[in-house]
Amino acid sequence: MTGAFLTETFGGRDAAVTLTRPTGAVRMVTLFRERALELDCGASVRNVRVAFRTWGELNAAGDNAVLIMHALTGDPHADSWWRPLHGPSRALDPQERFLVCANVIGGCAGSSTPAELGGHRLGIFDMARVQGELLSHLGVSRFDVVGGSMGGMLTLACLKLFPGQLKRAVVIAAPQRQSAWAHGWNVAARAALALDPARGLEVARMFAMLSYRSPLSLELAQSGPSPLGNGERAITTYLTHHGAKLRRRFTPESYACLTQAMDDFEIDDLTLRTNRVLTLVVGISSDELYPAEEVRRLAHKLGESTYYELTSVDGHDAFLIDTQALGAQVGRFLRLGDDAC
Ligand SMILES: CC(=O)SCCNC(=O)CCNC(=O)[C@H](O)C(C)(C)COP(=O)(O)OP(=O)(O)OC[C@H]1O[C@@H](n2cnc3c(N)ncnc32)[C@H](O)[C@@H]1OP(=O)(O)O
Ligand SMILES: N[C@@H](CCO)C(=O)O
C-alpha cells in the first residue's frame, strides 16, 4: 500500500488498540451540526464525522454518482479492496461516474466511532442515513448504490430510505435478515470480545474467516503443512495470520457495534414488494454465510430485481476475490440507460 499512514490508539487501559491505516486522499466532514441525527434506538446525536473518498466528477445535474458501501471491516479505500472493479473501463469507472465511498459510522476508519457517538446502539439504517446525508452535502441529486455483505444490507436500507433518489442498486451476498446461523457467529464473536477485547478480536476473526470461505476453498488452499515451515498445519497459521492482521487494523468496539447492527437488521416485506428501483441481486454459489438460496429468495420478493448467481468456490468473500465475472455483471447493470430507471 502506498501513501500516508496515520497511527491512532483507541480504547481504555484494558482494551487499548493501536491502528495504522492509510489516510491518502481521505476527506472528513462533520454532518448533523444543527439538526440531530435521530437513531433507530431513540437517541439523537450531533456532529457526526464521516471519512470518505471520491473519484471522478459530479455532473451538473448531480445525478451520475455511485455510492459504494463497504463490508464489515472495510474502509473508504474502494480502489484498494475492490481494485478489479474500480478504474477506467471497469464496473466502477471514475471517467464516467462520480464514485463515493465512506466509512460507516461506528466503524474505525475515520468516521465517528461508537464511543464518539455516545455508545448508543447503531443500526444499519442509521449508517445508511448518514451516507445519504453525505451525498446531499456533496450535491448529489440521484445515485446508484452498490455493496456486498454488510454493504449489501446498507444497500437494501437505501431502497427503503431513498427510493426517490435511487436509480439502480446492486445487492451482493446479503440477506433480508440474519439467519440464526449468521447471527450465531456474531454472538460467539462478541462473547470472545467480552472475555478479552484484543485477543477476542483475533479469535472472532478466526472463526469469521471460516464463515467467509468454503470448505472446498480451504481444502484446496489450506489443507497441507504451513508455508511458514514451522511444523504447523496451513490452516492453523492461516487463521492466526488473519486474526493478528485484523487486530492491527480494527477495534473490538467497532467489531461489536457493527456485528450487532448486522444482527439487528431486517428489511421488511412491504419495502421489498413495492420496490421500484432497478436492482441487481447477486448470490454466491458456495456462500456458507448467506447461502445462494437465501439470497435468491430475497431477490424473488424484491420488485424490479434481477438475480445473478456468481459461481465460485471461494465462499462468501468471493465478491472480494472472484471478481472477473462479478465486475462484468455489475458494470453492465450500472450502464443500463438512465431512461430505464
Ligand atoms: C469489503 C470491504 O469493504 S473491505 C474488507 C476486505 N478485506 C478483508 O476482508 C481483509 C482480510 N483479507 C482477506 O480476507 C483476503 O485477503 C481477501 C478477501 C482480501 C482476499 O482473499 P484471498 O486472495 O483468497 O486471500 P487469502 O484468504 O488467501 O489470504 C491471504 C493472506 O493470508 C496469508 N496466508 C495465506 N495462507 C497462509 C497460511 N497458510 N499461513 C499463514 N498465512 C497465510 C497470505 O500471505 C496473505 O497475507 P496478507 O493478506 O497479509 O498479504
Ligand atoms: N471479509 C469482509 C467481511 C465479509 O464480507 C470484511 O472483512 O469486511
Summarize this entry quickly.
The chain is an alpha/beta fold. It is built from twelve helices and twelve strands.
Structure description:
- The chain has helices at 78-81, 124-138, 150-161, 180-195, 197-212, 215-222, 234-249, 252-264, 269-273, 292-301, 318-321, 323-334, and strands spanning 5-10, 17-22, 27-31, 37-38, 44-45, 48-55, 65-69, 98-102, 143-148, 166-172, 278-284, 305-310.
- With 341 residues, it is an alpha/beta fold.
- It folds into two domains: 5-176 and 269-336, Alpha/Beta hydrolase fold, catalytic domain (Rossmann fold); 180-260, Rna Polymerase Sigma Factor, Chain: A (Orthogonal Bundle).
- It has an eight-stranded mixed sheet, with helices on both faces. The protein has a two-stranded antiparallel sheet with strand order 1-2.
- Helix 2 crosses helix 3 and helix 5 packs across helix 7.
- The longest helix is centred in the middle third of the chain and has 16 residues, at 180-195.
- Mean pLDDT is 94; it is low at 10-16.
- Acetyl coenzyme *A binds at residues 70-71, 73-74, 81, 222, 226-228, 234, 237-238, 241, 245, 317, 320-321.
Q: In angstroms, what is the radius of gyration?
A: 19 Å
Numbering strands along the chain, what is their spatial order in the largest sheet? 3-6-8-7-9-10-11-12
Task: List low-confidence stretches.
Answer: 10-16
Regarding CATH, which class of the largest domain? Alpha Beta
Number of domains: 2
CATH architecture of the largest domain, by name, is 3-Layer(aba) Sandwich
CATH homologous superfamily classification of the largest domain? Alpha/Beta hydrolase fold, catalytic domain
Number of strands: 12
Average pLDDT over all residues: 94
Order of helices and strands: EEEEEEEHEHEHEHHHHHHEHEHH
**What proportion of the residues is helical, as a percent range?**
25-40%
